[in-house]
Design brief:
Strand content: 5-15%
Order of helices and strands: HHEHEHEHEHHEHEHH
Largest sheet: 4 strands, parallel
Shape: elongated
Number of strands: 6
Strand order of the largest sheet: 4-5-3-6
CATH topology of the largest domain: Rossmann fold
CATH class of the largest domain: Alpha Beta
CATH architecture of the largest domain: 3-Layer(aba) Sandwich
Distance between the termini: 43 Å
Helix content: 40-55%
CATH superfamily of the largest domain: P-loop containing nucleotide triphosphate hydrolases
Length: about 230
C-alpha cells in the first residue's frame, strides 16, 4: 500500500531529514538490529517503532521522538515491515481466561498494526453498535457465523494479516486445545482467581448495572474450567 501523502510530506520535511542525520551521527553508521556497519548513511533508514499514520504523524512525541526511532539497514527495515520477500511466518495466539481476567487489555498491549483480532464481544459491538458488554441474544447466530469465518481464515492463513489474536474464555481444556491445534496457535492463559475477578468487577463502572449478570459469567467459567 502506498504511503499516505501526509506521511510522504513528513519524510521530506527539513525536521525529519535533520533528525535522521543527527541520530546517525550520534549512534554511528551501524544497523541497530543486525549490528552491521553500513558505509553510506543514505543506506540507513530511520525506523519508527510506532508506525506512522495520518493520525499520529503530527504528534512529534511519536514522529520526532528519538526514543521511538531506530537506525536500521534496508534489509532489516523490510523484515520489520514484512515486505519485499520478508513476509515471515504468521503467528497465532489464543488468549483465554475467566471474565475480568484482562484478556483484552493484554492483547491491546501486544497487538501491532496489521494484526487481526478475533473477539466475540467486539464482533457483537461491530454488528450492533452497542457497548461490547451488551450482547443481544437474537444476534448470536450472525456473530458466531462471522466468528467461525474469521477462525477459518486464520486456519488457512487467508489474507495479508501479520499475527492473529483470538480472545475468549475457553474454559474447557479439550475444546481449547483442539482449537489451538487446528489453528496452529500458542495458548496464553490470563491466570486470575475468582476473588480477583469479582474485585475487578466491583470496581468496573462500565458494568455497574450488570454486576449480577457478570458474576454469573465468572462463576460459570470457574465451575467449568479444566486445566
Amino acid at each position: 500500500m502506498a504511503k499516505h501523502a501526509v506521511i510522504k510530506s513528513f519524510y521530506a520535511s527539513k525536521e525529519w531529514i535533520a533528525l535522521r542525520l543527527l541520530l546517525i551521527i550520534e549512534r554511528g553508521n551501524k544497523c541497530e538490529h543486525c549490528k552491521e556497519i553500513i558505509s553510506k548513511s543514505k543506506d540507513l533508514i530511520g525506523h519508527h517503532t510506532v508506525e506512522l499514520t495520518p493520525e499520529n504523524v503530527h504528534d512529534h512525541n511519536i514522529s520526532l521522538n528519538p526514543d521511538k526511532i531506530e537506525i536500521v539497514c534496508f534489509d532489516c527495515h523490510n523484515k520489520e515491515h514484512k515486505r519485499f520477500g520478508y513476509k515471515g511466518a504468521k503467528e497465532v495466539y489464543l488468549v483465554y481466561g475467566p471474565p475480568m481476567s484482562g484478556k483484552t487489555t493484554f492483547v491491546k498491549h501486544q497487538v501491532e498494526r496489521g494484526d487481526i483480532v478475533v473477539d466475540i464481544d467486539s464482533l457483537y459491538s461491530a454488528v450492533s453498535m452497542l457497548p461490547d458488554y451488551d450482547k443481544p441474544d437474537n444476534l448470536y447466530n450472525n456473530v458466531i457465523g462471522i466468528h467461525s469465518q474469521l477462525l477459518d481464515n486464520i486456519k488457512t492463513r487467508y489474507g495479508k494479516w501479520h499475527n492473529a489474536w483470538i480472545i475468549g474464555g475457553y474454559a474447557d481444556k479439550y475444546k481449547r486445545e483442539r482449537l489451538a491445534n487446528d489453528l496452529g496457535a500458542e495458548l496464553i492463559y490470563c491466570e486470575v482467581d475468582r476473588e480477583e475477578c469479582i474485585r475487578r468487577l466491583e470496581h468496573d463502572e462500565v458494568r455497574q448495572y450488570r454486576k449480577d449478570e457478570w458474576k454469573g459469567y465468572i462463576d460459570k467459567w470457574f465451575e467449568s474450567y479444566t486445566n
